[in-house]
């Protein structure tokens, strides 16, 4: 703790230099030496203050701006720190009478201090104050002792005192005089009384237990009314201060005859006690006096003497007939713990004679004051990451009662992360007991309870409101760790396809979230090539039009970053799934038309109903329903002769060929998909019916042997037919290989149909089909579509006669044994 007093160099030399008593008269010189000794002791005591707080001593009535002490030096600080640490001087008394100059750290007088006004007759008048420093928070208590100076003269309530003294009173009788009053204390209060010189009266003084000097007029010589009926004396009261002050009252003495016995009380001093909560009109004490005279001279009346203060007369009543002392209003132990009542009993003689007594009343304390809670320098906001033991506020608790009634206990709720720590007597510090989390609790209302040990106990509670300020300790959080976004292909560039949202549990700037892509896209393509994102609201836009046939799905990583320092980041995965749109027409794979002309096919005239002529093979780059193909005859020279399988694309005879009157037929086959809207393609086919395919081949082999049957036109026709057949066979083999390779990547299973024919039966063409399904999956969706597999065919030989073999298509993947049923 800091100890400090006003600093003086060699205080003893200073005092001896100012006070020179050697040239004074002996009586005054003795007083001067005594005062010097007393003042020197005060200075020495002040320069060695008790440890624990700052203490200064100043005389009362110090001029405005007068020096009290060097606060900044006694605190061990420098002047700039006063501003940096937000220096404050708090206390009702100190703040009213004193101030601190923040430019030099000097404690100065703001208003003249009248010790008598501040402390009355109390010894040891001090004005407490408290110094509050912040950043970091600290406090220091101190007090300023106000020393009394002799600034008040003794005075009498009345300028004249009237006495009536019977001439028969013998010498030696004393008459109580009204005492003078002096608000000063110690040596500055009344020290002596004197009267003007005369031969009949002298003055006697005595000091009571409470330090009051009582002056009594002593009759030294018998009076004779006939010789002198009255006296006028001057009563002077002087104090012990330097310079000495005095006050004077006139004593008017009238000499009368009769009533020569004064009333006498049972006790010179009465003592009693009363509780401070005693109701109005309660009997406190009954006094009694007797008078040895008779008749009216022995009849007594009781009064408060002029020595009783006005405050006593406000609090108590005295019955003039019975001598009963009762309470007039409620008493307050905290105001005054004891009272002194001067009582006189006056007889009815002429002149009247009074007897005097003193009554001391002790006020007994009761528990009528609850503890007072004062909260200073409260931190209204503390950071949630503050370490345990962080100081929140300073609390001072005071109970004005005494004894057990003035002892108290304090507590705060146990289920909060705070605790109380005792810093000094009646002073507490509210500190954190554990780390705080604003996201769990953002504000605390701490109920501070103080209760005393009285019976019944009194309590006071005060609510301290603490707000927790945010730090950036929470990263943004997405609603889900991954999202699936479905986008139809051929979308318009720049359209919004999705929006992600991340929330941050922090507050203000720490909760502001911005969005961006992490550049780690499949095939090392940057995210910005496909998508863009609004950094404020997380809306994702397509940068280009997607093509399902080129890109079916891809993943991007969206990261959310808050605006805290340092920023915190979280990310989520967004899977973009491209949905197929029917934007590809079917492509005819077989039969292949050459140079834009129709495909040419031959079949024997003996073909019966259901004879397989060929199979239309088509492919569609789309998927699902958009790739499910159907076949139908769009135009035919004889619609009743041929039909086509709606789903298989197989062209068969609807009736025997022989029933037809013509040998050449033309067909236009329409192939369309199942999309919305549907897309289609057509293929033209010329079919020629011949008597015997093997005879044609034999005749062509005998062409060289029999040149008379071999013309140039026939030669050209055979060459063209052979080249066409070879080319057709090569194309089919290549297409089958390409489709097999393509279907392994996109299709899991296929439906296949096996068609075989039995020799000698026009109706022996029958289907042998094995059902298989293609499983189409959209990545990341879990959606499965089952569609029939497009048929694939390879070339097989079907013996129709012993002469020749005709070329047929068999389903791809079917064994020879299956093909040859």
Structural notes for this entry:
This protein has 821 residues and is mainly β. The chain has 5 domains: 11-147, Cadherins (Immunoglobulin-like); 160-364, Immunoglobulin-like (Sandwich); 372-469, Immunoglobulin-like (Sandwich), CATH 2.60.40; 477-579, Cadherins (Immunoglobulin-like, Sandwich); 587-819, Immunoglobulin-like (Sandwich), CATH 2.60.40.60. 13% of the residues lie in helices and 40% in strands. The strands form 18 sheets. The protein has a 4-stranded mixed sheet. Strands 8-14-13-10 form a 4-stranded mixed sheet, with no helix packed on it. Helix 1 packs antiparallel against helix 2. The chain is rod-shaped, with a radius of gyration of 63 Å. The relative contact order is 0.05.
Mind sketching the topology for me?
Blueprint: H1 11-18, H2 26-46, E1 54-59, E2 67-70, H3 71-74, H4 79-84, E3 88-90, H5 92-97, E4 98-101, E5 106-109, H6 115-119, E6 126-133, E7 138-147, E8 160-166, E9 174-176, E10 190-195, E11 201-207, E12 213-219, E13 230-239, E14 246-256, E15 264-265, E16 269-275, E17 283-286, E18 289-290, E19 300-304, H7 310-315, E20 316-318, E21 324-327, E22 338-347, E23 354-364, E24 372-376, E25 381-383, E26 391-398, E27 408-411, E28 418-424, E29 427-432, E30 443-452, E31 459-469, E32 477-478, E33 482-488, E34 496-499, E35 502-503, E36 513-518, E37 531-533, E38 539-542, E39 553-562, E40 569-579, E41 587-590, E42 599-604, E43 612-615, E44 617-619, E45 629-636, E46 642-644, E47 650-653, E48 664-673, E49 680-690, H8 693-701, H9 712-746, E50 752-756, E51 766-770, E52 773-777, E53 784-788, E54 793-799, E55 805-811, H10 816-819
Helix pairs in contact: 1-2
């Amino acid at each position: 703790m800091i100890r400090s007093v006003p600093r003086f160099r060699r205080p003893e030399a200073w005092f001896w230099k100012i006070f020179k008593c050697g040239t004074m008269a002996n009586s005054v010189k003795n007083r001067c030496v005594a005062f010097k000794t007393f003042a020197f002791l005060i200075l020495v005591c002040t320069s060695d203050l008790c440890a624990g707080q700052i203490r200064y001593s100043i005389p009362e009535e110090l001029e405005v701006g007068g020096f009290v002490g060097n606060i900044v030096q006694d605190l061990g600080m420098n002047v700039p720190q006063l501003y940096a640490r937000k220096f404050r001087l708090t206390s009702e008394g100190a703040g009213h009478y004193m101030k601190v100059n923040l430019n030099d750290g000097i404690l100065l007088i703001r208003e003249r201090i009248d010790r008598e006004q501040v402390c009355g007759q109390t010894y040891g008048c001090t004005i407490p104050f408290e110094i509050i420093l912040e950043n970091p928070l600290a406090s220091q208590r101190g007090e300023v002792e106000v020393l009394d100076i002799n600034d008040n003269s003794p005075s009498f309530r009345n300028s004249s005192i009237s006495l009536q003294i019977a001439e028969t009173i013998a010498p030696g009788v004393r008459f109580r005089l009204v005492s003078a009053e002096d608000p000063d204390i110690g040596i500055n209060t009344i020290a002596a009384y004197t009267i003007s010189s005369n031969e009949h009266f002298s003055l006697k003084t005595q000091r009571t237990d409470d330090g009051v000097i009582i002056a009594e007029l002593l009759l030294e010589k018998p009076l004779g009314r006939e010789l002198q009926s009255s006296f006028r004396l001057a009563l002077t009261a002087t104090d012990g201060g330097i310079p000495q002050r005095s006050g004077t009252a006139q004593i008017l003495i009238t000499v009368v005859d009769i009533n020569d016995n004064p009333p006498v009380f049972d006790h010179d001093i009465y003592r009693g006690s009363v509780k401070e909560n005693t109701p109005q009109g309660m009997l406190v004490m009954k006094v009694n006096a007797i008078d040895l005279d008779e008749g009216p001279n022995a009849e007594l009346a009781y009064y408060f003497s002029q020595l009783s203060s006005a405050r006593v007369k406000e609090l108590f009543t005295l019955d003039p007939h019975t001598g009963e002392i009762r309470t007039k209003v409620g008493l307050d132990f905290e105001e005054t713990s004891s009272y002194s009542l001067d009582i006189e009993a006056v007889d009815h003689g002429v002149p009247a004679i009074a007897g005097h007594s003193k009554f001391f009343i002790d006020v007994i304390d009761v528990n009528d004051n609850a503890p007072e809670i004062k909260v200073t320098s409260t931190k209204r906001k503390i950071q949630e990451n503050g370490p345990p033991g962080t100081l929140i506020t300073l609390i001072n608790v005071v109970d004005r009662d005494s004894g057990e009634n003035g002892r108290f206990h304090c507590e705060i709720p146990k289920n909060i992360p705070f605790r109380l720590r005792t810093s000094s007597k009646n002073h507490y510090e509210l500190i954190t007991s554990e780390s705080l989390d604003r996201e769990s609790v953002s504000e605390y209302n701490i109920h501070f309870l103080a209760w005393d040990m009285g019976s019944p106990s009194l309590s006071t509670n005060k609510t301290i409101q603490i707000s927790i300020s945010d730090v950036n300790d929470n990263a943004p959080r997405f609603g889900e760790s991954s999202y699936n976004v479905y986008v139809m292909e051929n979308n318009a560039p720049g359209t919004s396809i999705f929006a992600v949202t991340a929330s941050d549990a922090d507050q203000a700037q720490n909760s502001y979230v911005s969005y961006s892509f992490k550049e780690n896209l499949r095939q090392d393509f940057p995210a910005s090539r496909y998508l863009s994102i609004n950094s404020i609201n997380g809306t994702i836009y397509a940068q280009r039009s997607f093509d399902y046939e080129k890109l079916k799905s891809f993943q991007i990583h969206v990261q959310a970053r808050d605006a805290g320092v340092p920023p915190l980041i979280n990310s989520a995965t967004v899977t973009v799934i491209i949905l197929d749109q029917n934007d590809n027409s079917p492509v005819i794979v077989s039969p292949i038309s050459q140079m834009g002309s129709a495909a040419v096919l031959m079949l024997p005239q003996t073909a019966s109903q259901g004879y397989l002529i060929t199979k239309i093979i088509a492919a569609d780059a789309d998927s699902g329903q958009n790739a499910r193909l159907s076949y139908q005859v769009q135009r035919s020279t004889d619609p009743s002769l041929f039909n086509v399988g709606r789903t298989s694309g197989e062209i068969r005879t609807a009736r025997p060929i022989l029933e037809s009157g013509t040998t050449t037929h033309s067909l236009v086959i329409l192939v369309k998909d199942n999309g919305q809207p549907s897309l289609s393609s057509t293929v033209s086919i010329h079919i020629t019916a011949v008597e015997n395919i093997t005879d044609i081949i034999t005749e062509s082999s005998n062409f060289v042997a029999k040149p008379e049957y071999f013309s140039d036109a026939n030669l050209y026709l055979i060459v063209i037919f052979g080249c066409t057949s070879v080319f057709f066979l090569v194309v089919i083999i290549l297409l089958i290989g390409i489709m097999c390779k393509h279907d392994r990547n996109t299709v899991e299973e296929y439906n296949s149909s096996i068609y075989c024919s039995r020799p000698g039966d026009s109706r022996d063409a029958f289907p042998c089909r094995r059902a298989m399904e293609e499983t189409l999956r959209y990545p990341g969706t879990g959606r499965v579509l089952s569609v029939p597999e497009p048929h694939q065919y390879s070339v097989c030989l079907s013996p129709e006669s012993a002469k020749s073999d005709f070329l047929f298509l068999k389903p791809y993947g079917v064994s020879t044994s299956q093909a040859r049923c």
